[in-house]
Design brief:
about 110 residues, mainly alpha
């Protein structure tokens, strides 16, 4: 028997992540959660993306080396925290990992 709980609403996930990572701006946390939700809601991606993935991304982003996060740094963190959880290659749009990377690039560029 498998129990599927689903994901918390965007605002609730943001509250959790901000409580766990107070060093991050609300704007950055919102961006991470927004990109995660685009992945979760994409018909091209069958596997889920847990709150653990957004928490991991926030932990990386909270490192002092990411003091002033630019688009490329955010993309690199999400490539590790989000894309690596899916099968395939990030540069193969025919794979789930490739589809996730497209969504990350779109979200980061927005």
């Amino acid at each position: 028997c498998t129990l599927s709980v689903g994901y918390p609403p965007v605002e609730e996930e943001m509250k959790l992540l901000q409580a766990w990572h107070p060093e991050l701006s609300r704007k950055l946390v919102a961006r991470v959660v927004t990109i995660a939700n685009s992945i979760r809601n994409s018909p091209a991606v069958m596997a889920g993306l847990s709150v653990r993935a957004t928490d991991e991304a926030c932990r990386f982003l909270g490192d002092p080396m990411f003091q002033d996060v630019q688009h490329q740094e955010l993309a690199d963190v999400l490539k590790t925290s989000f894309c690596e959880r899916f099968d395939g290659a990030w540069d193969d749009v025919g794979s789930e990992r490739g589809q996730v990377w497209l969504l990350v690039e779109k979200g980061v560029g927005a």
